[in-house]
Structures are given as C-alpha cells and as structure tokens.
Specification:
Layout lengths: L2 H17 L6 H13 L2 H4 L1 H22 L1 H8 L14 H25 L3 H20 L15 H11 L9 H11 L4 H26 L9 H29 L2 H18 L1
Helix pairs in contact: 1-2, 1-4, 1-11, 2-7, 4-10, 4-11, 6-8, 6-10, 7-9, 7-12, 8-9, 9-10
Protein name: Undecaprenyl-diphosphatase
InterPro entries: UppP
EC number: 3.6.1.27
Length: 273
C-alpha cells in the first residue's frame, strides 16, 4: 500500500477524531469526504471500507477512555457516592441511557448499513439534527436541575437514550442528539456533554466489536497499514477535540454547531447534486 493511501487513512482518521464528539456528525463527514474525494471503496471495496470506519471509531473511543479514565474507574468499581458522601453518576444510569438505541441498533444494523450510508441521507440528517439542536437551545431551562453529570436522574438518562435513537440515521449525530436530549431533559450543556461522552464508549465499543467480528476477513496484510494509520490518527485528533469541546460547550451552546451543519448541507447539496 503506497504513501498516498496512508495519507488518505490519516485524513479520514482526522475527520473522525475531530467530529466524533462535536455535534456535527462524524459519520456524515466521513461519508461526504470519502464519497466526494478519497473514495476508499475503490481500493478497499465497500465492506472493507465500512470496516475501516469502524476501526477508526475505536481510536476515538480510546481517546474518551483516556480523558474520562477516573470516571470509568469509578463506574466499574460501582461506587455510587463521592468520598464526601455526595451522589455520583452510577453505572446503571449509563446502562439505562444505552438501552433504547442499543436495541434498535441491533435490530436495524444491516438495513442501516445497506440503505442509509449515502451523501443524500447524510444531508437530511445534518439538517434535521440541526433543527433539534436549535430547539434544545431555545427551550433549554435557565436553571438546569442537573448542573453536573453526577446530578443526572434515571428519568433524564432514559430520555437521552430515547433521543439517541435518532442518531442511528447517519448525519443526525449521536453527540448532537444526546446533548440536545439532555438539555431538553433539564441538564446543563456540560452535564449533557459529559454524559454523552461516557455513554459513547460502551455503545460504540459494542457496535464496533460486533461489526469487526462479522468482517474480520477484511483485515488483510495489504489493508492493515491503512487501518493502523487511521486508528492512530483518529485517537490523536479525538483527544484534542474532546478536551477543546468540553471547555467550549457551556459558553457557545449548540446553535453555532447547528448553523454550521445547515451551511455544510447547503454547500454539499450545491456541489454534489
């Protein structure tokens, strides 16, 4: 595999890492960049190219684990309180938030992979997701009940889980839908973002492992350097973008990201169609 292919892998990893946890749809950006420019299917084949996208998502997942390592240690230790006796986010609350999209994802995975991964469907998701994000900011409570992730209730976790189902449509954005759902359910933007990132690890890891088990035959020696380069690139850029986004979200909220999505959809529609 030549250096041009490796550079393409790094670029796709960069797109994934920079957009996975911002509410702009990493899947949508990858589909657009790949379909319009890189065209990984031409040298990997359709299913190997889709497997590559799963591999670089694992790089982003690893970045979340690094940023929230102390939080995951607490969750796995099943501690329900801080040392000072104050409540903290529980593992069961994360599980409650995962159930709705997890069930639908398993039931409709093949249909989504076969019919919804296209530039046209991504454009629809970008616009509809942007409208949800604008609605979340417009109707956000001035004094959220959950200022931090440790104050989230089971009801709020379940509402976020329900709204997360929208992200099964490529381009809608998992972080965009879950942060919007959290804000509408009475969380601060930072609490919703933290909860979104924590939930991302098990649901993305589960989906990735299932996909890789089904497509292990595409890990050929020819494709492996491409996969490794994309994985490392996604990890590095996700690490940077997560830290930046968490410092930013309470200040600018969701509307600027929504405007970007609408402008992007318009530009892509004009250029592509």
């Amino acid at each position: 595999m030549d250096i041009i292919m490796i550079l393409k892998a790094i670029i796709l990893g960069m797109v994934e890492g920079l957009t996975e946890f911002a509410p702009v749809s990493s899947t949508g950006h990858m589909i657009i960049v790949d379909d319009m420019w890189l065209k990984s299917q031409e040298f990997l084949g359709k299913y190997a190219a889709n497997t590559f996208k799963v591999v670089i998502q694992l790089g982003s997942i690893l970045a979340v684990v690094v940023v929230f390592k102390e939080r995951f240690i607490d969750l796995l230790g099943l501690r329900g309180r801080h040392r000072d006796g104050q409540p903290r986010l529980k593992l069961m609350q994360v599980i409650v938030g995962l159930i709705p999209a997890g069930v639908l994802g398993v039931l409709f995975e093949d249909y989504i992979d076969e019919h919804l991964f296209s530039t046209a469907t991504v454009l629809i998701g970008l616009v509809l997701g942007a409208l949800l994000m604008i609605a979340a900011d417009v109707f956000a409570k001035k004094a959220p009940k959950a200022q931090t992730v440790d104050q989230i209730t089971y009801k709020q976790a379940f509402i976020v889980g329900l709204v997360q189902c929208l992200s099964l449509w490529p381009g809608f954005s998992r972080s965009g839908s879950t942060i919007s759902g959290g804000v509408l359910a009475g969380m601060s933007h930072r609490a919703a973002a933290d909860f979104t990132f924590i939930m991302a690890v098990p649901i993305m890891l589960g989906a990735s492992v299932l996909s890789l088990l089904k497509n292990w035959q595409y890990f050929t020696m020819d494709a492996l350097p491409f996969f490794i380069a994309g994985f490392i690139s996604a990890f590095v850029f996700a690490l940077v973008s997560i830290r930046f986004f968490l410092r930013l979200i309470n200040q600018i909220r969701l509307v600027p990201f929504a405007v970007y999505r609408i402008v992007l959809a318009l530009v892509i529609y004009i250029v592509y169609f």
